[in-house]
Design the sequence.
């Protein structure tokens, strides 16, 4: 039989390996760590990787991000599949084209992160602000329970919100919608990094909680916190959980400020749901309960508030939920609609 020059790769009798399952990478770039999730079209998590963010002093320290994505790809290797897009949430201002204009916690200015990661991995990459990306990730996630108008409020080193209105992430013309951390709540309060005085961040962020405790101790208040070094928001919330009176009064005041700010946000935007996350929110019920108690007070005094902010409107995200990495997954999915198909927006429960 004469050879017909059959390309073995096209031989119909040759078993064909199934094409790799397409998946995207969602990346959370934080001040101290990078978290990566690899997620398929149906929302299945193939791998998760967390690496320290070690190159903070470098002007363009993307190596930890590359290493974290590579580690996740290696972990998912046994499952097979093809990386089709990357989405990244970054704590800072991001411009179109995935250029990080300013990320103070990372020491970054004008870093073309999307282009660098595309160069590294050969797939399209989208970059967004971390908090706004997280809000985008919650839309359509089962944790949002179908809500089309919701806010993700991150309480950590700073305070910020991502807004989803009528089923769409709302960024605003400057990409700054949701800067509730810089709403003034105490005009006679302390100076804020933004140049104003008495912003919500100066009374309810992690550093503000620690500062309040330090000031009270310096003024002679008795507390178990006197023996704690260094004083942190985490220590204050732990002391409150143990019943320390000073710590309890601080977390109650913080809860009152956050409740008012969250109520303002709900009333302004007619939100169905507010989900809380971030480092300070990770304290759990000792963080959430004072907020809920003050919301209940507002509700008891106003029929309008009771109607617009019914019980259950404000919740904390599970502490194991990588909100920003899931936000990165949402950004990547938007790029990967060809590989994933148009019906690829639903997300399954998190399995970490
Ligand atoms: Zn401010």
Sequence:
């Amino acid at each position: 039989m004469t050879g017909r020059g059959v390309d073995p790769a096209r031989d119909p009798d040759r078993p064909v390996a199934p094409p790799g399952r397409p998946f995207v990478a969602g990346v959370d770039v934080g001040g101290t760590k990078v978290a990566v999730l690899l997620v398929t079209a149906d929302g299945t998590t193939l791998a998760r990787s967390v690496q320290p963010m070690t190159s903070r002093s470098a002007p363009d320290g993307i190596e930890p991000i590359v290493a974290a994505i590579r580690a996740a790809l290696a972990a998912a290797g046994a499952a097979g599949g093809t990386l089709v897009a990357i989405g990244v949430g970054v704590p800072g201002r991001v411009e179109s084209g995935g250029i990080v204009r300013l990320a103070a916690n990372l020491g970054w200015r004008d870093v073309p992160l999307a282009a660098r990661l595309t160069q590294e991995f050969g797939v399209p990459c989208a970059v967004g602000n971390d908090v706004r990306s997280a809000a985008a990730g919650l839309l359509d996630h089962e944790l949002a329970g179908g809500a089309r108008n919701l806010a993700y409020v991150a309480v950590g080193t700073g305070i910020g919100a991502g807004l989803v209105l009528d089923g769409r992430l709302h960024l605003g013309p400057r990409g700054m919608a949701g800067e509730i951390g810089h709403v003034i709540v105490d005009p006679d309060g302390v100076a804020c990094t933004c140049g104003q005085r008495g912003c919500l961040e100066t009374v309810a962020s992690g550093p503000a909680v620690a500062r309040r405790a330090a000031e009270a101790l310096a003024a002679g208040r008795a507390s178990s916190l006197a023996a704690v070094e260094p004083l942190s928001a985490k220590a204050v919330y732990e002391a409150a959980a143990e019943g320390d009176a000073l710590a309890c009064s601080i977390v109650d005041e913080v809860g009152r400020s956050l409740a008012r700010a969250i109520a303002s946000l709900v009333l302004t935007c007619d939100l169905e749901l507010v989900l809380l996350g971030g480092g300070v929110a990770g304290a759990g019920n000792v963080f959430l309960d004072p907020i809920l108690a003050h919301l209940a007070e507002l509700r008891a005094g106003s029929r309008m508030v009771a109607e617009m902010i019914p019980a259950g409107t404000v919740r904390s995200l599970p502490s194991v939920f990588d909100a920003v990495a899931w936000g990165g997954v949402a950004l990547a999915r938007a790029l990967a609609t060809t590989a994933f198909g148009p019906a690829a927006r639903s997300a399954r429960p998190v399995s970490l």
Q: What stands out?
A: The pocket of zinc ion is lined by residues 182, 192, 194, 196, 199, 201 (CB under 6 Å). The chain has two domains: 22-136+321-340, 146-316. Confidence is low (pLDDT under 50) at residues 1-18, 343-352.
